[in-house]
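User: Some background: our group keeps a shared notebook of sequences we're curious about, and every so often someone picks one and asks for a predicted structure to add to the entry. Today it's my turn. The entry only has the sequence so far, pasted here. Could you supply the structure so I can complete it?
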Amino acid sequence: MEQALLLITIGVLFLGGLLADKIGHLTRLPRVTMLLLLGLLVGPSGLDLLPQAATDLFEPISVVALTMVAFLLGGELTRDNLSRHGRAISAISLCIVVGTTGIVWAGLSLLGLDPALALLLGAIATATDPAAISDVIRQSGIRNGFTETLNGIVAIDDVWGLLMFSVCLALIDQSGGWAAPLLGAGRDIGGAVLLGICVGVPSAYLTGRLKEGEPLQTEAIGVVFVTAGLGIWLEVSFLVAGMTAGALIANLARHHAHAFHEIEYIEWPFMLLFFLLAGASLELDALRTLGWISLAYAGLRIAARLASGLFGAWIGGVPRAEASHYGPALLPQAGVAVGMALVAAEAFPSWAATIMTLTIAGTVFFEIVGPPVTLLALYQNARARRDRL
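Assistant: Of course. Here's the predicted structure to add to the notebook entry:
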């Protein structure tokens, strides 16, 4: 009976996802937002209709979906793209990470929060949601220099964010010295890059040989699942591993007409379930628990994104007309932030409740509000580009 209920639930979620997608098209809202809201409605914070077996699917589904996103984002880091937008990608991503940490830390400290706790929350605030931003870009149908740069930023900014978080953790937690947090980050990111190389290099030369022009769907699925599984097994970032492998395949596989066609074809069913189950896992109570601190955190993160994106765009030589669009486009926040929060909560048990509640509250807010703002930024940028022509 449990298996039958699970299959029925998955079927209903797919059909409900199609309905949410259709409503999104009619209302001009991102389908990501509609799926998250639908998941919120049927999850524990709403009507609580999902069986436990469906909820248990969230972790494996999210790993596969996010690894696919990582491959696609890594595929944006080609020599051609980096030669045209590399300066902007580096400048904006670094400014966003440093600026978000600094502004959130300073603001929360001035409001009376412990400066050490505020620094941790500032580092956690650097995380973005690559899946949501990538899907909004794909749904918009807009493909220009702005979206290429945005994809490049999303591909690497969580790497900088993890490094920033590790440095902040080391600054605050001197009980174990500097070594533990920094070595942990080095192992996670360095090991993931090495895994991506081990998967990406042979895949670049071996995939796409059975059928001339592009890899078969079976090959694409196999490479994604192997990368995700090895990442979990080796306890390294499967996101960074997927991004590294994707970048290597895109740059080395000269016999591919389009290295990631097949991943794009199969990605959406996984993404649909991922966003629905992500919505079901959101906890609305977290928004009310901390009151003004939640509002301050959200406001400071928004201000940091806007200011840092503008400054980074100026350093990166971005045209003035589109410089102000990067900050708003990078508002969505999700899983990486929660992962950082779990590490911080374990390191500082006395702050655990505040860190987890505030991070979950921020995730709820930015997951729902962020994608529509990203879509608006894409449309405004496209309009500004047309006006310049």
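Suggested note for the entry: The chain has a mean pLDDT of 81. DSSP finds 18 helices and no strands in the chain.
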